[in-house]
Each structure stands twice: as structure tokens, then as C-alpha cells.
Specification:
The protein is mainly β and about 425 residues long. The chain is built from 1 helix and 29 strands. The strands form 7 sheets. Strands 6, 7, 8, 9, 10, 11, 12 and 13 form an 8-stranded antiparallel sheet that branches. The longest helix has 6 residues.
Length: about 425
């Protein structure tokens, strides 16, 4: 057993089985968002207007870019649009902006900037395409940000190469053009960038946080083909965090064992459904038969029970947290539970079979003995067993390493090609 997994459990041993109350606030009229860290029991607050864009900077293949959808009651939103042109030099008129893009609240790998991704094209990241020859994602789309004060900027993500984002932005007429870079190696899992405020990377949001108490846009599922997005007040998960919902139970006595297999990493796993408003009294109530098990990226599992929510008058809320245990020491860290390539050696076409703990995008990469990428593809994978056919790879005879990459985990298999 690795000692590095024991430290968090030892630090939290004194809290085991004891419910502690955590208080926070969205602020009056929901002007505040909070980033909560279980390990230090710390809530770091920021104003909704303090940042504009969040870049996923964790995994080597992550390229998710989110827009800050948080807005106070009756306030003006920060809006992202697909530009009517993909030539950054073109002058853009605000009157030609009609396609607004939203975060999907599913994964940090896919935000509003990734909204135009073609799920049938494994090299499409929404804002750009993966180029095998350059081993980089090359931007091919232009976007427009409408700020809360009514001003605009056009923006293009130029590339993500060797772990470095490069992007530029300017006024709609092309004036005041600025180019920025963000190196993933210098950041935490997610980097927050401000255009209208500091004009650079926001440094007051902690690198390590587990739950994000914020406002965000969510589609109202009314059965229509184009549901309307509404601002909701809720909780989103941090990078690497998994959540299991326990509903219709006694939250004080429910145990993690019954829900361990229900953990999933969707950002909106907690969301806004832990409360409801009485339309007659306009008073908020908390569901009394609901609890959440939150597993942090370090493997600590906490039981969370919401106890109060005041609404927009003060934005105050409270929940209890109870340490369940640290599970990273006793389980396999990889999200892959198995992988096999056959036939091996291969002559032309091959088949890959693998099992995945959760659904998502998997990148398949074939490396030669020099560590060079000779072939790659992205595929949509299901939770559980998957089979993927590799086409005629047209590679020289030799030994290769096939890597399956998913968020913060991967698995590698040795392959031999004979022609």
C-alpha cells in the first residue's frame, strides 16, 4: 500500500463520523460564487464579474473552454456567440450575432467554446481540430463575447500545442488586438481568465477546490426540441470530483456502500435540485430525504446534506459534511478496468476491447519506439465494455505502444505490426 494515499486519511481521522456544518453564501441577489475545498474546509468567494473564461488545464488532451454564466438576479449575462465568420480579420456587426453558445455542465472537457463539436469526428474539439502532423489542436473558429456592460470582443483560440493555449482577442473592428498564452504546466486543473477586469489570469481562485457554488444556465426540459435556458442557483463539481445522489432515504443513516457504484463525474451531479420554492409563499425548502456522497480527486469521500437556503434575499446556505473515508488506497486508480488489442501482431486492421468506469471521450494514440505519434483518434466510449475497430493503419513493421487516454487516466498496451 502506497503511503501517499494514507496521509489524507490520517489528517482527517479526527473528523471521521462527525457531521460538521458548513455555511456559505451566494450573496444578496446572487452576486457571489464560492469555491469549496473539503480538505481544508475552506470557501473562497469571488464576484460573478471577476472572471470571464475558464480553461481546462489538467490532462494532456483536455481542451475544454467554459464561459462564466453566473449572473446576479435581473443582471446582464456574459454571452458567447458563434461569429458569422471564421476570418478573424473580418469586421463583425453585433446585429449578425444569432447563435448563442452555453456550457453543457457535463464535463470540464467540453464548455461553451466546444459547443460546435461534431460527435462523429474524433478530431473535432469545437473551437478547432486536432492536426496529427502538428500534434496540436488548431483553432478554426471565431467567437464573440458580449460583456455584462454591453461591449463586445471577438476571440479566437489559435492552438493548444505542447500543453500551451494560444489565443487572441480584439474589438469587433479589429482594433486593440491582444495575444495571450496559458501554459498548463503553470496552472492548476482549471485556469480562470478575465478580459474586462484584470486582463489576465485570475489568481485569487484556489487551485484546489471540490464544489463550486454558483449560478449557471440550464435548459428547461419542457419536451420541445429547443428548450429555453434559465439561470439556476446550484452546485457544480470540480475537476476529478465524483458524486452519487441518495434520494428517498434517511440522510442521517444512509451509508456510502449502497451508492459506491453510482458515482459519476458529471459537473451538474448535485446541480440545483436539492431545494424547491413554494410559489405561493416564495419560501425555499430543502428536500429532507436527500444526501450526496462526494468523492474528491484525492479519494476522500464525504456525505453532504443540505440544511438551508435563503434565496436571493441574502443568498445564504448551509450543509453538513461528514467524512466517510479515503478510498484511493484500496482501489485501482485508472478509469480503465481492462484493455486488449487483437490480433497481435497485426497485419492491417485491428480491434481494441476495453472497459471504462464512466462514459466520455477516449483518445487512442499509437506511438513508435521513438515516442512519436504515428496515429490517433478520438472515440465516444460508454461506461462498461467497449469495442473499437482500428482501420488499416498503414504503418511500418515494428513495435508500437497503444495508449488509451481518458481525462486523468490512461492505459498502455504493446503492439507489434507485421507487413
Amino acid at each position: 500500500m502506497s503511503n501517499r494515499f494514507l496521509l489524507p486519511a490520517l489528517l482527517l481521522l479526527s473528523n471521521y463520523g462527525l457531521a460538521q456544518t458548513v455555511s456559505g453564501t451566494y450573496g444578496p441577489s446572487y452576486i457571489i460564487q464560492g469555491f469549496y475545498n473539503f480538505q481544508g474546509d475552506e470557501m473562497t468567494n469571488a464576484l460573478n464579474t471577476d472572471w470571464d473564461i475558464a480553461f481546462s488545464t489538467a490532462g494532456s488532451q483536455d481542451a475544454g473552454i467554459h464561459v462564466n454564466e453566473a449572473v446576479e438576479s435581473m443582471g446582464n449575462e456574459l454571452e458567447l456567440y458563434q461569429a458569422p465568420t471564421n476570418d478573424f480579420n473580418d469586421v463583425i456587426s453585433p446585429g449578425n450575432l444569432d447563435t448563442r453558445l452555453y456550457n453543457d455542465e457535463v464535463s470540464w472537457n467540453y464548455g461553451a467554446f466546444n459547443g460546435w463539436v461534431d460527435p462523429t469526428d474524433p478530431d473535432d474539439y469545437g473551437w478547432g481540430f486536432y492536426s496529427q502532423s502538428e500534434d496540436a489542436i488548431i483553432g478554426d473558429k471565431v467567437f464573440v463575447l458580449k460583456f455584462r456592460n454591453g461591449t463586445y470582443k471577438k476571440i479566437q483560440i489559435l492552438s493548444l500545442s505542447q500543453g500551451v493555449y494560444t489565443f487572441k482577442y480584439a474589438n469587433l473592428d479589429g482594433s486593440n488586438e491582444v495575444t495571450h498564452t496559458i501554459n498548463k504546466a503553470d496552472q492548476g486543473d482549471i485556469t480562470f481568465f478575465s478580459f474586462s477586469g484584470t486582463g489576465g489570469v485570475v489568481d485569487f481562485i484556489p487551485e484546489q477546490w471540490d464544489l463550486w457554488f454558483t449560478r449557471y444556465s440550464s435548459p428547461l426540459d419542457d419536451g420541445s426540441p429547443n428548450p429555453v435556458n434559465y439561470e439556476v442557483t446550484g452546485v457544480l463539481s470540480g475537476y476529478g470530483v465524483e458524486v452519487a445522489e441518495a434520494k428517498g432515504i434517511d440522510p442521517q443513516t444512509v451509508t456510502f456502500e449502497a451508492y459506491e457504484d453510482s458515482l459519476h463525474s458529471e459537473l451538474g451531479a448535485i446541480g440545483y435540485g436539492w431545494k424547491e420554492i413554494n410559489i405561493n409563499t416564495f419560501q425555499w425548502t430543502i428536500f429532507s430525504d436527500l444526501a450526496y456522497f462526494v468523492k474528491t480527486a484525492s479519494g476522500d469521500v464525504w456525505k453532504v446534506i443540505f440544511t438551508s437556503f435563503s434565496g436571493s434575499s441574502s443568498g445564504d446556505f448551509a450543509f453538513t459534511r461528514e467524512f466517510v473515508g479515503n478510498f484511493s488506497a484500496i482501489e485501482e486508480q485508472s478509469v480503465f478496468t481492462g484493455m486488449e488489442a487483437y490480433p497481435n501482431p497485426i497485419t492491417d486492421e485491428a480491434t481494441i476491447a476495453f472497459s471504462l468506469k464512466q462514459a466520455g471521450i477516449v483518445r487512442l494514440v499509437l506511438y513508435n519506439t521513438m515516442g512519436q505519434v504515428t496515429w490517433s483518434r478520438q472515440v465516444e466510449a460508454n461506461a462498461g465494455f467497449n469495442v473499437q475497430i482500428l482501420p488499416d493503419l498503414n504503418i511500418p513493421s515494428g513495435t508500437y505502444a497503444l495508449s488509451l487516454q481518458f481525462q486523468n487516466g490512461d492505459t498502455i498496451s504493446r503492439m507489434v505490426a507485421i507487413h
